[in-house]
Structure formats: structure tokens, C-alpha cells
Write a structure and sequence with these properties.
mainly alpha
């Protein structure tokens, strides 16, 4: 009885192209990530022409990466928190 109900449920029009849609999510993800990087870089590109702002941006990027790495190390217990 339950097996027949599940077969009827899974054979509806909603699930006919389910796996095709799931496989397309990978390309959507890549498109979104590339779009974010391209739009962010195009916004920061004029700031990189000046040496002072370029140094500041690189410093902030290094600081952000260090903050993320240290936070993840403390959260995952790789280093003891004093």
C-alpha cells in the first residue's frame, strides 16, 4: 500500500525532470560565484591604480584571511584557546 502511494507520488509531473534540475545547480553555482568575483573586482579595479589605496586593500585582504583562518582554528580546536 505504502509502496504504491510512493510510486504514484514520485511519478507525478513534479518529479519527472527532478534530476535534470539538480544537475543544473552546479552551473548556476559557478555562474553566481564568477559574477560576484567579476563585479567585485570591477568595483575595486580603479582603487588599485593608486599605490596607497592598493596597499590598504591588500592589507585588508590579508587581515581578513588571517581573521578567518584564526577563527576557524579556534572554532575547530586546532589550537588551544588560552
Amino acid at each position: 500500500m505504502i509502496q504504491k502511494i510512493l510510486q504514484n507520488f514520485l511519478s507525478t509531473a513534479m518529479f519527472n525532470d527532478f534530476f535534470g534540475n539538480v544537475l543544473r545547480y552546479q552551473s548556476y553555482f559557478v555562474s553566481i560565484v564568477l559574477g560576484i568575483f567579476i563585479s567585485t573586482f570591477s568595483w575595486l579595479k580603479p582603487l588599485l591604480k593608486n599605490k596607497i589605496t592598493a596597499t590598504a586593500l591588500i592589507g585588508m585582504l590579508v587581515g581578513l584571511v588571517a581573521l578567518i583562518v584564526l577563527t576557524l582554528k579556534a572554532m575547530l580546536g586546532f589550537t588551544p584557546v588560552a
